[in-house]
Design goal:
Strand order of the largest sheet of chain A: 1-2
Largest interface: A-B, 56 and 49 residues
Radius of gyration of chain B: 18 Å
Number of strands of chain B: 0
Helix content of chain B: over 70%
Number of helices of chain B: 9
Order of helices and strands of chain B: HHHHHHHHH
Oligomer: heterodimer
Number of strands of chain A: 2
Shape of chain A: globular
Mean pLDDT of chain B: 87
Radius of gyration of chain A: 18 Å
Mean pLDDT of chain A: 84
Largest sheet of chain A: 2 strands, antiparallel
Distance between the termini of chain B: 15 Å
Chain lengths: 221, 195
């Protein structure tokens, strides 16, 4: 793969949310407003970049048997860094994200990329992969939160769009999250059905340790 | 010990703040395992067991190790390691002691290590500063709520398989939409205020 392909595959072809359906829990929980979504996107991007970089640097001397715990410790370290920075400089966002900020540590995207890419590739490639995946995650999360905030509270980044319009607040409540992502996935399926007559979205979506230990993080089933 | 408070925690965690449908914790295994009722019962029992155990052990670790050393900021790292070790240990014990139980419950254990519901319940306990009994009850209730949603979903999915679904919606999208409708029904429980 060329460098450009590595960078681009995370954005469209293997978009972590819309194509591989990973890390859904935090995605659904924090997309009720665009501001929260944006900060969560940055947080995940930072952790992804840091962990991919460090894991690919250490990949030659982490023993094979303890690599999953080692990856978890590396990821958790970066999550703590993000937590402390946000607590210090953006306390309102830190409170709004709540437990979903520390829960980045069990986000399947991070462990999945660590296992599937960073532990096998060079440092530069891993950084490019992290940037691509990070942008893919960020764009996905922004589009979901854009739809939810527009429909659910008639606002974009806290600014009212149409005066005197009463929004359907179900979209900022939990059911709205599930409905929005369901319809978006169906839309992506519809696009690819029209284009090359096949469904692209992989069936759900679970990174488990058995798959990881078998060295085949397909992350489904 | 105030029984009323414990009751409100347990009903709150099963119905009002259901872990999947209201708090979005544990969506990945929820989507992956809810394909048939048998495996969702096994998974549900495994989650109840691990969540109860994890929330009590994480409470002990936080109170007597992290707080006494003054390193609460490390809780993310410590909790995930404690849970990972716990799950692997429970799996090994079950495998050695009762192969029958392992077949029905143990195979779901590795799925749980990276489940956000288990880690989430530990964070929620520490954010709400519950005491030991309250934490354990909260973990148990959360697990029961998870199992409830999982079994409901698996019953619906068994029927979905035989219905005609528009092609773009087949597979994952229809599951999300069904979950959304279930979550809408669960909003009704928000009116249930327990004193």
């Amino acid at each position: 793969m060329t460098k450009k392909e590595i960078l681009l595959q995370g954005i469209i072809k293997e978009n972590p949310i819309f194509k591989i359906v990973l890390g859904i829990c935090s995605t659904l929980a924090i997309t009720s407003s665009m501001e929260n979504g944006m900060m969560m996107g940055f947080a995940v991007m930072f952790v992804l970049l840091g962990s991919n970089l460090l894991i690919s640097v250490c990949r030659t001397f982490i023993p094979d048997k303890v690599r999953i715990p080692a990856f978890i410790v590396i990821i958790a370290t970066f999550v703590i860094v993000v937590e402390l920075i946000m607590h210090a400089y953006a306390e309102s966002i830190y409170k709004a994200l709540g437990i979903f900020l520390p829960l980045i540590v069990v986000n399947c995207i991070l462990l999945g990329r660590a296992e599937a890419f960073a532990s096998k590739n060079t440092v530069i490639d891993s950084i490019l992969d992290a940037i691509g995946m990070g942008i893919g995650y960020f764009l996905a999360i922004m589009s979901i939160s854009f739809i939810r905030e527009c429909l659910g509270s008639n606002q974009i980044f806290g600014y009212t769009i149409i005066k005197g319009f009463s929004p359907a607040s179900i979209f900022i409540l939990p059911p709205g999250g599930f409905l929005t992502i369901g319809f978006l996935l169906a839309f992506i399926n519809w696009l690819s059905l029209r284009k090359n007559n096949k469904i692209v979205i992989e069936t759900p979506a679970c990174c488990n340790l058995n798959d990881l230990q078998k060295k085949e993080c397909k992350c489904n089933e | 010990m105030d029984i009323g408070r414990l009751m409100s925690i347990i009903i709150g965690s099963i119905l009002i703040n259901n872990f999947i449908l209201t708090r979005f914790l544990g969506c990945c295994p929820f989507l992956g395992v809810s394909k048939d009722t048998d495996s969702s019962i096994g998974m549900g029992l495994a989650v109840i067991f691990v969540m109860t155990l994890a929330s009590s052990i994480c409470w002990v670790v936080e109170r007597y190790i992290l707080m006494s050393l003054g390193i609460e900021y490390l809780r993310t790292l410590v909790f995930i390691l404690v849970i990972a070790v716990l799950v692997q240990m429970v799996e090994a014990i079950i495998l050695k002691t009762s192969p029958g139980l392992y077949k029905s419950l143990g195979i779901y254990l590795p799925l749980i290590t990276t489940n956000c519901a288990v880690l989430g319940v530990a964070f929620l306990n520490s954010d709400k500063s519950y005491n030991f009994i309250e934490s354990t009850i909260h973990g148990f209730g959360g697990g029961v709520g998870f199992m409830l949603a999982l079994i409901l979903m698996s019953c619906i999915r068994e029927r979905i398989q035989f219905s005609k679904i528009p092609k773009p919606f087949a597979g994952t999208p229809i599951v999300f939409i069904t979950t959304g409708l279930m979550a809408m029904a669960f909003i009704g429980f928000a009116g249930l205020i327990i004193q």
